[in-house]
Amino acid sequence: MPEAARAPFGARLAAAMDDLGPLCVGIDPHSALLAAWGLGDDVVGLREFSLRVVDAVGGRVAAVKPQAAFYERHGSAGVAVLEETIAAARAAGTLCIVDAKRGDIGSTMGAYAEAFLRDGSPLAGDALTVSPYLGFGSLTPAAELAAQTGRGLFVLCLTSNKEGFEVQHARTADGVTLAASVAAQAAVLNAGATPLGSVGLVVGATIGDAVAATGTDLEAVNGPLLAPGVGAQGAGATELATVFGNARRQVLASSSRGVLSAGPDTAALRAAAEAAVGEARAALRG
Ligand SMILES: O=C(O)c1cc(=O)[nH]c(=O)n1[C@@H]1O[C@H](COP(=O)(O)O)[C@@H](O)[C@H]1O
């Protein structure tokens, strides 16, 4: 769809979450999962796995999120499968967040933006995960192209892994934590957008009281909050409700292995996704 015809990502995601519930299914074809599904750890297995997940959950969840690393580990043929997976999500009418966590100096970021956010690029989904830790301003080329093409960004803010605090809780010369600073800069880009801006944050569901501890104002971001860590990393309904508090209506909970481990049976995958949607809806929309 050309730029002019596509509504902004934030509006499209808000509508999908209202309609189908606040859950994203991550597509992470780990070698162990390929084996558990009876598939080879090769490009044929990767393709079968990915297309089966899209077939099972497409049109039933708000978004899917293929993790680029699991495709890149198979080389260029694996990247071609990522392209095919993105196209399959598009054909199913399901929003696709490409989880590639890109971040580089501005001029190189421009090339990443063209790869993942430009109309006509085979790697372009509906949104891209990006890292602001080369400086938030280094993301400007991606923010600009995303805005032009109706796509979105998810900027790493408070990640689900335990090492993240070293960077994210550190304070700038002004005494503000990096996480709070990232959130405030995303808020500027989302100012005035309704119902939600298109510059989201990644805030893990496993982070306990880190939102308060870092002084991060999630509500003011006025954008979606991608919350990985649900399922395999241990977070559930209680953690979602506790971590996000008043910002919970902005949250898109994300689970990969928690759903994928139900495969390869399509009905079982659907049932696992439905259960995860129910849990996320109860925690975030109840
Ligand atoms: O950006 C992400 O999606 C992400 C950020 C984060 O803080 N933590 C995190 O786990 N993720 C991704 O979310 C997925 C989690 O997978 P599961 O632990 O299997 O649900 C992986 O693809 C991670 O790379």
TrEMBL record:
Record-linked Pfam families: OMPdecase
Q: Which residues form the active site?
A: 101 (proton donor)
Q: What is its EC number?
A: 4.1.1.23
Give the top-rank taxon of the lineage listed in the UniProt record for this protein.
Bacteria
Gene3D superfamilies in the record, alphabetically?
Answer: Aldolase class I (3.20.20.70)
What are the record keywords, sorted?
Answer: Decarboxylase, Lyase, Pyrimidine biosynthesis
All copies of the Orotidine 5'-phosphate decarboxylase domain together span 22-272
InterPro entries of this UniProt entry? Answer: Aldolase_TIM, OMPdecase_type-2, OMPdeCOase_dom, RibuloseP-bd_barrel
Pathway it acts in?
Pyrimidine metabolism; UMP biosynthesis via de novo pathway; UMP from orotate: step 2/2
Keyword check for NADP: no
Q: Name one GO biological process term.
A: 'de novo' pyrimidine nucleobase biosynthetic process
Decide whether keyword Phosphoprotein is in the record: no
Q: Which reaction does it catalyse?
A: orotidine 5'-phosphate + H(+) = UMP + CO2
Q: Which PANTHER family match?
A: OROTIDINE 5'-PHOSPHATE DECARBOXYLASE
Give the family per the record. Belongs to the OMP decarboxylase family. Type 2 subfamily.
* Name of the protein this chain belongs to: Orotidine 5'-phosphate decarboxylase
The uppermost taxa in this organism's lineage are: Bacteria, Bacillati, Actinomycetota, Actinomycetes, Micrococcales
Gene assigned in the entry: pyrF
